[in-house]
Amino acid sequence: MSSMEKSYNLRDRTLRFVDREDEMDFLYEEFSSPRAEMSCGHAVTPMSLTNWCRRLLEEGKSKFVCGQPNCNREWPYVEVRKMALLTPEEREYFESTMALNAARECFNSKTCPGCKFLVTRKDESNLSVRCQICTVKKGRPYEFCWQCLNKWRGQPNANHCDNDGCINQALKTLRTCPEIVFESIKNVRGCPSIRACPTCGSLLEHTSKYCKSIVCPRCKVKFCFVCLKIMTECTKTSGPYEPCSSRVAPRQTSIPVWHR
Known about the structure:
The chain is built from six helices and 13 strands. It has 260 residues and is α+β, with helices and mostly antiparallel strands. It folds into three domains: 88 residues, Herpes Virus-1 (2-Layer Sandwich); 60 residues, no CATH class; 66 residues, no CATH class. The strands form six sheets. A three-stranded antiparallel sheet has the order 1-2-3. Strands 4-5 form a two-stranded antiparallel ribbon. The radius of gyration is 21 Å and the shape is flat. Keywords: Metal-binding, Repeat, Transferase, Ubl conjugation pathway, Zinc, Zinc-finger. This is RING-type domain-containing protein.
């Protein structure tokens, strides 16, 4: 990845420059580059765009979607590559990670720790997954843990294997993340800053402290970050800037499975 700050050339006539704040700078790093406009209409710098798209890849996404609330516009990779001024090293990382994430997303697959091939899990309730390639090569059943990606140890159908440190990292994040304070919504206390989308299970961090709604970039469903109801259901009894009638939903203890 690039170690030096990238910056747009103001003489590049293929870019649309705007005099606005960097709307992808979620960490307030205040990059010095001029701001240019993406196809969705939001302003970016090459560094903030690179960081946001890298975050999507690290979360397992294979497509790039604007991170602004209520904007679910998908950016083509060719646009991201150009607007982020990706270096050759960044291009290689982006393209290889996109391909791997796409395979995992489409086929519910993970890499077997034995043979390093992608294995598809047929039973989503069972953490012990058999790799047919390793089973044939070794001449005996070979199973690995879907959670920690090590050779399976322990009893079948358990909620974790007996390997040291076998924990569900997503559930740990939901359990330990800090709370968010909504500045414009009174009497909302104890809302976690990270939620699993109630439709597809993707982990999302709410960056807006003023509106409780969020659109999941994976399944495109708009839901309430406070009560976890679909937004159309939540707004039947309370507005988007008002406390939910059903109050704050507790911290999630399971990850919803997307039944597409």
